[in-house]
Amino acid sequence: MKSISVRTVRRTEMIDITGRIQAAVQESRLQDGMCLVFVPHTTAAVTINENADPAVPGDILMGLQKLIPCDDPQYRHAEGNSDAHLKTSLVGSSEMVPVENGRLVLGTWQSLFFCEFDGPRTRKVLVKTFGCLP
After folding, report:
1. Closest Cα partner for 134 from 2, 35, 30?
2. What pLDDT shows up at residue 78?
3. What is the pLDDT of residues 59-70, one digit of tens each?
4. pTM of the full structure
5. What pLDDT, on a 0 to 100 scale, did the predictor assign at position 132?
């Protein structure tokens, strides 16, 4: 298993980690199989979405903020980051991506995004590959 460090600079942001995940797949020498991308944090997530238009990650964060505002007075969690926990549960902590000929199999416009909901922080993403080696 490979651990990748991700440094965030804002409370909420989406960072394209596709290249780093692809590098981990190449390092593993996996040719055909699956790649598990897992975020071991309760206030950060991972998702696959469009990266062709840079407005899409911002729109996703804006939509999540409208659905789950950060300052709802009914939140009871003492740390003040209840919204981050809810957003993480909604988006999810893992993605499974097929690998073929040593490459992640993603759609034309798809990328893997690390989603920060309680930053800035230094986080980690775990990458585990399964399948056939050369």
Report:
1. 30
2. 65
3. 999 999 999 988
4. 0.94
5. 79
- Contact in structure between 64 and 118 (CB atoms under 8 Å): no
Which residues neighbour 47 within 8 Å (Cβ) at sequence distance 6 or greater?
A: 14, 60, 91, 92, 95, 112, 113, 115
Q: Is the separation of the CB atoms in 25 and 98 below 8 Å?
A: no
Q: What is the CA radius of gyration of the chain?
A: 16
Say yes or no to pLDDT of 95 above 90: yes
Query: Average pLDDT for residues 90-114, to the nearest whole number?
Result: 97
Residue 60 CB neighbour total at 10 angstroms: 18
Residues 6 or more apart whose Cβ sits within 8 Å of residue 74: none
Helix (H, G, I), strand (E, B) or coil at 31: coil
Strand order in the sheet with 13-16: 13-16, 110-116, 44-50
